[in-house]
Every structure is written in C-alpha cells, then in structure tokens.
Amino acid sequence: MKYYIGIDLGGTNIAGGLVDENGKILKKLSVPTEVERGENAIIDNISDLCGKICDENNIKLSQVEKIGIGVPGTVDSENGMIMFACNLNFNKVSIKPIEEKCGVSVKILNDADAAAYGEYVASGSKADSFICITLGTGIGSGIIINGKIYNGFNGAGGEIGHTTLIKDGVQCSCGRKGCWEKYASATALVAQTKAAIKNNPESIMSKETVINGQTAFRAADKGDETALKVVEKYIEYVAEGLVNVINIFQPKKVVIGGGISREGEPFISRVREFVYKYDYNKYLDKTEITAAELFNDAGIVGAALY
Amino acid sequence: MKYYIGIDLGGTNIAGGLVDENGKILKKLSVPTEVERGENAIIDNISDLCGKICDENNIKLSQVEKIGIGVPGTVDSENGMIMFACNLNFNKVSIKPIEEKCGVSVKILNDADAAAYGEYVASGSKADSFICITLGTGIGSGIIINGKIYNGFNGAGGEIGHTTLIKDGVQCSCGRKGCWEKYASATALVAQTKAAIKNNPESIMSKETVINGQTAFRAADKGDETALKVVEKYIEYVAEGLVNVINIFQPKKVVIGGGISREGEPFISRVREFVYKYDYNKYLDKTEITAAELFNDAGIVGAALY
C-alpha cells in the first residue's frame, strides 16, 4: 500500500487525511487554521497536522509518497507558491517550509480543483472530460481534461460561477452583475427562500427560525406552494448554467457537489431533465450528470492523489 | 515544400486552397456547392475541385500529403463521416469516395474548428490555450488546448455562442432564450441597428437603403448619436460574452474573427478595455485579445494543416 496525505486548507479549519493509492481515506483529522496568527503559524499547523496524521496511523512521515494541499486561492504549483488567498491573508507564501519540516514532497493546487479531482477519482477516472460544479457559498468549478486539471495559461481559469446568467442582474462580488453564482449557489437559494417567505407570510416556512439551503426543499416536500415555486425556480437557475457548461464543453460527465447536492437524485433528475431538453446537442450522446460522491472529503482525496 | 489541400465546404460555395506546411495559400479556387443536386454531387464537386487546384499549380494529386475539409456540421473524424450538416442536407455521409477518387488521405473537421485552427497557425501556434470567436451570422467558436481542437467527448462542444447572456431574453434558434449570439453576432448588430433607426428617424442611418454590420460603425465615425449608442451597446454585448469565455478558460489568446472584426483595432481595443475591467482575474497576466488575421482563408488553412 502507498500512502498520500491530502490537506484541505480552509479559512476556519485545516482538514487532512491519509489516503491510499485508490483514493480511500484511512484517517481524517482537523485542526483550526488560526488565520489571526499569521502565515507562519498556518504553515506550521499544516506541518504539525501531517505529523499527527502519521502518528495516529503508526506510520512515519518518510513512508508518505507526497503531501497535496488544496488552497482557497490562486497557486503557482510549479514554484510551490500560494500567490494569494484572501481568506487566509496570504500573498506569495511559499510551501517550502512544510516540505523541509516533513521531509516529504509537497504539491499545492486550488481547492475547487482538488475537490473536482477527488470526485473524478471517485467516479473511476475514466471520463476524458469531466467537470465538477460545487453549489456552496459561491459556485466552485473544476475542469478535468484528459486526466489533467485545466485552469488556463495563468492558473486563474475555471471560474464558471462567474459567467453571466442575467446580464445587469444581481450585483456580484467579482464586480460584474448577474453571475451564475448569484442565482444558483446555496447562498443564492437562501436569499431566494427568505425573499419568498417575506412576500408569502402564509408559507409554512415563515415558522422556521433558521433558513438554510434545505428549508425550501423540506417545505416543498410537504406541498407548500411558496416553497415549491422557490425550488422550481432554483432548479431552473442551476440547470440554465449547466446547459451553458455543457454547450461549451460537452464533457463526458458533470458532477454536482456542495450541500445542495445532498438533495440527491430527486433534485438531480429535475436538473437533468431541464438540461437535456435545452442543451444544443440534440443528436449525439448526452453528458452524464450525477450528484457528488465524496462531498467534503473530495478536497482531501483530490489533493492527495493529483 | 509539402503540399496540403484545405477545403471550406459552405452551403453556397466550396472554397479550396493549396497550402504549404507553413500555412501559406499558394492557390485558391471556388466552385458552387450545388446543394440541390444532392450529397453525391457535392462529394464529386469536392473531388473535382481538388483535381483542379492541382492542375492549376502544375502538380499531381499524388504530391498532396493530405486533404482537409471543414464542414458546417457535426463530424465523426475518426470514421470519416459527416454526421449531419443541415445546410447541406447531409445525414451520415461518408467522405471515403473523395479519398478513393483523389488517392489522398482525407480528414474532416467542423468548419468553426478549422477556422480556429487556421487562426492558431497564423498566430504562430504558440499559445497552449487559444480560442477563436467568429462574429458572423451566429457566433462560431473554436477551442484549441495544447495544439488540439477541443470539442467534447461527443464532438459537439465549443458552442460558446449558445450560452446565456440574458436568461429569458431574445429567442434563439437552439430552443433557448437569451443566447450570446442573439446579442453579439453580426446578425444581431444588424437587427439592433434597424431597431435604432426605427426609433430615431433623425439618425443619418435612416437614409441608408442597405443596413449591414458596418452601417452603425460608419455612422458613428461621423458622430451620429444613435449610431454611437448602437455601437457602444454592441461592444458591451461582445465584451460581456468574452469575459465569460475568459473567466472559464483564461486562454493565452483570444482571436475575434468574422466580418465585424474587420473594424480592427478601434473596435478590438474597446472590447479589450471592457474585458480587462470586468474579468475575474485581477492579479495575474491577462489573455491577449486580437482581431483575426486570415478571415475567410482561416477555414482553408486550418482544414489543410490540422
């Protein structure tokens, strides 16, 4: 058996796992990121976590083939530099200290790319073109072509969430208006749910104290008219963006991840129906569309094995 | 010197050229497609054109390395089958008869892909990621990654013109509403120009008898207020779609072709300014954006050399 360590570096926690060559997680651990302590502390926390993961599995760091780190920002993989990651206050931070402290080769990649690669491994790594779309705080996306992550000549590509669904629509943090993620992310669904409750106080959702990405789906299950409309419209937003993705890439497979994808096949099947009705390709084989398999573990597996 | 023949198979004419290994067209000829005579006649016309091209250059068909054909439809390159091409009434047509009649190996590819590859060759074939956008009757697009045309697992990808700019906007022939090509193609510009003239009879454009893709640009040159607004809005439509392309691909280079791109640098520089202001990448190198170099010859060169 070969050992790999995959690290999912987040703004709040650093999740790490020992992974075998087949993408199976043998052990998972998590420590606080401690952004407030600065970049050196974060780098130390990552090194320490790698050591701890090995300790708990009774192996030595020297038995680990590689450490992979998924970073919420832009990376220069070749030179081992995290170019910037706003949630970590990172600006040109080298990962060499981790390599020196652990004595293991370290590779970094973008976290959405790591998650996409994890799902690609989980799906059998057979698709020559594979796209993972994560419906979360925003919309993350990872593009894998011929087994390799594609993100453009400068490493900043794959921002599918930042393509217009409605020009001059809802203001996006990227500076434009009407980006797909302003309509189809989990955050957008929560906003749409809240707006619907405000306009429809008779909805059973108005009794809820906490509104999240599940609120409308659960109320729709009970036949609530307002919730049914919210869910229907949200599915349309997700599917319209997916049609765009498919018209451009015609990937063999699209995997939908993020909290919303836990709604599973009842959700995915309605997205699929819309996409297959409206995509440009009417004659040839269609892209396979499924829910994610690994969810939060995708980043660890992808970082470990890329 | 090595000889290649590139064929640009259109609904009205078949354009063909003898091309050297550097992409230089040595001789160009064109014959009517004669769609009304059916698929066998068209296939014969292509073979005859290849013969004629060689005759006029005093070479033999046997001296030609390869014949490449750009087809307005979907192709199965591997098996030499044109799967369908609605403007030609083609449905599963084999190109083997051309191979047999000419005694030269024949390769087919999609015409937008051929044009993109031609522009890629003209640009020096150095960009590891290259996208050609053609603003014509619709919006054509060709994606070249690591020197290879990318069009998905089923060959139907690269339909960037059919991505939403405005969800639920102008009805598109593909079945959806609000596709980019309904706002940023040459056809769309003509429609926008006509609508503006109707609403602004004081515009100097109202004296024109023929309205085409140049009408608004020429009137804007003369300071016509209505035309200036049409051009400004059109540039915004082109650029918004380009920002989407760049946020997804971050290609090394984007080339804009089609009749509109003959407006050259005054047009391209305004598109570029908008794109660089609104694209997601604020820190790293930017995609190079230029006008096409080969225009109508791109399809011939690309088909010949791919």
TrEMBL record, chains A, B:
Ranges in a coiled coil: none
Stored InterPro entries: ATPase_NBD (IPR043129), ROK (IPR000600), ROK_cs (IPR049874)
PANTHER family tied to this protein: BIFUNCTIONAL UDP-N-ACETYLGLUCOSAMINE 2-EPIMERASE_N-ACETYLMANNOSAMINE KINASE, ROK (REPRESSOR, ORF, KINASE) FAMILY
Annotated family: Belongs to the ROK (NagC/XylR) family.
Protein name: ROK family protein
Organism: Hominilimicola fabiformis
